[in-house]
Amino acid sequence: MTQRLPLIIFALVLAVIPLLPGIPPFWIVLLDNIGLAALVAMGLVLLTGVGGLTSFGQAAFCGFGAYTTAVLTTAYGVSPWLTLPASLLVSGIAAVLLGLVTVRLSGHYLPLGTIAWGIGLFYLFSKLEFLGRNDGISGIPPLSIGSFKMLSPDTIYYAIWVAVLLAALLTMNLLDSRTGRAIRALRRGHIAAEAFGVQTPRAKLLVFIYAAVLAGLSGWLYAHFQRAANPTPFGAQAGIEYLFIAVVGGAGYVWGGVLGAAIVVILKEVLQSYLPYIFGGQSQLETIVFGIMLVLLLQLAPQGVWPWLMSKLPFKPARKTPDTSVKLEHRERAPGTSSVLLHIDRARKQFGGVLAVNDVSFDVNAREIVALIGPNGAGKSTTFNLITGVLAATSGKIAVLGNEVANAPPQEVVKLGVSRTFQHVKLVPDMTVLENVAIGAHLRGNSGAISSMLRLDRTDEAKLLAEAARQIARVGLSDQIDQLAGSLSLGQQRIVEIARALCVDPMLLLLDEPAAGLRHMEKQRLAALLRQLRDGGMSVLLVEHDMGFVMDLADRIVVLDFGTKIAEGTPASIKRNPDVIKAYLGAAA
Amino acid sequence: MNTTIMLFLLQDGITNGAIYALLGLALVLVFAVTRVILIPQGEFVTYGALSYAMLATGQVPGTARLAVAMGLVAFALDLFFARKALHARLVMRSVALNIVFPVALLGLVYALVGPHTPVAVNIALALLIVAAIGLFLYRIAFQPIAHTSVLVLLIASVGCHLALQGLGLVFFGAEGLRGPALSSAAVTAGPLRFTGQSLAVYGLTVGFIVALWLFFGYTRTGKALRATAVNRLGARLVGIRTTLSGQIAFLLASVIGAISGILIVPITTLYYDTGFLIGLKGFIAAIIGGLVSYPLTAVAAIVVGIVEAFSSFYASNFKEVIVFTLILPVLVLRSLAAPQVEEEKD
């Protein structure tokens, strides 16, 4: 309840504002405009700030929403409320079509693609006969409830702000859920998320559609607020402005979108009314100031205003501690010790002319710790990537419990009970340890985006967080559970990755240099933990350079050199193996 | 359709395409060196073209004063960032580049401007003005954030575009301008007439492509510039002055932009905001070229020009729609051909 309190106060304040005597009607118009911009900006927050997909084309989706209702109400006499689902649907469908193309684009191609279709759609709006070409469509009926017509800015005000608050609530709910964590992991690249079963293209498409639907809603409201629609507010300039709003407010924060909208709309108004006094009657001066301020802002406060404000707050919002009594179902485990868990048969990986892994074969049995060692560049991490499906093998067979992996994507491999950590830590630094670890349990929950938004996912969510908290306790990081992952030391971050991998409830744990960056005591604790996991029925395959650690811990060691297996055996036999000594120390002179 | 119309459209498309190619090349150049996606490229075009047109009518363009103002800001930034280690040579260099150069340029403009100034002098002045603006733009807007992500740079670049376009309206007004032709020579080949103007366009485009290709492929400076783009820190560690690389790239891009502008302003009327659209079309070419390949960009630009010419003949209303949607299949193909690579962001 305490978390909702600021929101309720904010809603009450907003509700009272138009009722205050002496409020200039012009202020209400400004607030309406702020609300309309905030809706679009909120979508952009999710898309750009959280999901990492920069779109300059959001204004076009407002256009879809506005023109849908404009055409349906004026040409076909449909009631404005009935056009709401139609507007949302049209923006949503447009988003699916554009999104299927757009989310496939990587890196800077993506924002460029959005600029291109944003401009294309603007010209389409302004050239189509049935959309009224450049003049647009006027005479759109107002929203009405019974005989009450929302004609004036202070009546539609309520419709706009109810929409904003609802959208904010739904968006925050979404972010604080299983799907939300998957979305928040997108910005840091897709490999880590996919290793825990997140369908990244689907998650990207989801945020893309969500942002478009919010923009469509804003467009629908805009059409009934202005009672007209023309192409100008849906062009490239507007799309740029929405992104500006999100960046100003704080692109990673839902309320940053609202704050940014307030700042930009008011600033624009002030600039438009006062600049001509200072510099004479030249128009467009506000865009100059605007552009300069955007550049300044990026140089001085690239995170935006909202996080800066929050850091000034005297108190920190409290976090709930998950109730660890609720349990997730466990995977059935093979009881025996001799069964082969992972079978690698002549796996080969070729990058152009480089043979990174050359027909390597070895097995990992149930309840066994196997170490994969070798000098730098021996192909250890590549072997990991072949096993987990990050890379496709050029030839050879890899099977988990007799099921051939056959170059399955990482999302399928993890379903077989293989989970991993990364040589270069891949955590989401601005998520807490708990949230990061909970991504590991992604496949053990099943709530989707809609149920998350409506908070129907709470039992499912509680189980996931409880499991995450248990694994964090297991690796001994309970004290850091609410800290941001990026604030931990590198060694601790590696341990967080192990907790995340354990959340999969794996049969086989792949650890890529888990002891790097750990202190002596921490290494001993890690070794004890891994032994305990093995005795509990798990198998571990690890890559490690700390020979003391490996020799003490491993049941069996596989040695790679230049992509080829040169030895395999118990630690004692490996220590004496002349080939191994040669690979590490060079031939005796 | 008869052959003559087709030939005319082709000619028109190729001439426009050559301009897009020049701009596309500049975009590729800037991106390759600084990772900035240069949206204000279009403003370099309009600034160059309209400054030239104004000089030709005997007026002093406001861009000359803008260069002085930007120089002052750049000088202040230089002093501020070097405040811990100020020494005379550095200050002198900064004064010379940021104060003396634009002020001298402004003086030169005032001294030479007039209704009878030779075309060549006007061109040189316009080019120098835009070059100064390009140089200072990098110093002011991008150098302080040169280490940030492509995205932050892109948004900053959009901000620069907004500011420069707004200033363009202040300097040149809302009315369009046309400049005098560079030469009145013309060659006739069959039904087609090639003006000296369009021949200059072709010649300069080919010249720049070859020059840039040679510069980046075969010279030390060119390779140093490319190294800066791949890894700024690494480049600095091996002794490349990364800020200098960025300045060179922006200098080249602004000159190329201004040249394109001066080449087209005798053919079509340019408005203060025309540059954005022209720049974007160069952009499409640059993207098709993957922001890396000069020859591919040039070819793509010609294709964009031809598609535009033909669609303006057959479906003139949807000319822009067609040109801008052209990019989508290309982007899809690019994404399918090159699977996503993991990149560490932020």
Structural description of this entry:
The complex is a heterodimer of chains A (about 600) and B (about 350). The mean pLDDT of chain A is about 85. Chain A is α/β, with parallel strands linked by helices and about 600 residues long. In chain A, the strands form 4 sheets. In chain A, strands 10-11-12-7-13-14 form a 6-stranded mixed beta sheet, with helices on both faces. Helix content of chain A is about 55%, strand content about 10%. Chain B is mostly helical. Chain B has helices at about 5-35, 40-55, 60-80, 90-110, 120-140, 150-170, 195-220, 220-230, 230-235, 240-265, 275-290, 295-315, 320-325, 325-335; strands at about 185-190, 190-195. The longest helix of chain B is centred in the first third of the chain and has 32 residues, at about 5-35. Residues about 340-345 of chain B have low confidence and may be disordered. Chains A and B meet through helix 5, helix 10 and helix 12 of A and helix 6, helix 11, helix 13 and helix 14 of B.
Globally, the shape of chain B reads globular
For the biggest β-sheet of chain B, the strand order reads 1-2
Content of β-strand of chain A: 5-15%
| Overall pLDDT of chain B | 84
Strands of chain A, count: 14
Number of helices of chain B: 14
CATH topology of the largest domain in chain A: ABC transporter involved in vitamin B12 uptake, BtuC
List keywords for this structure.
heterodimer, A: 589 residues, alpha/beta, ABC transporter involved in vitamin B12 uptake, BtuC, Rossmann fold, 3 domains, 6-stranded mixed sheet, 4-stranded antiparallel sheet, 23 helices, B: 346 residues, mainly alpha, 2 strands, globular, disordered C terminus
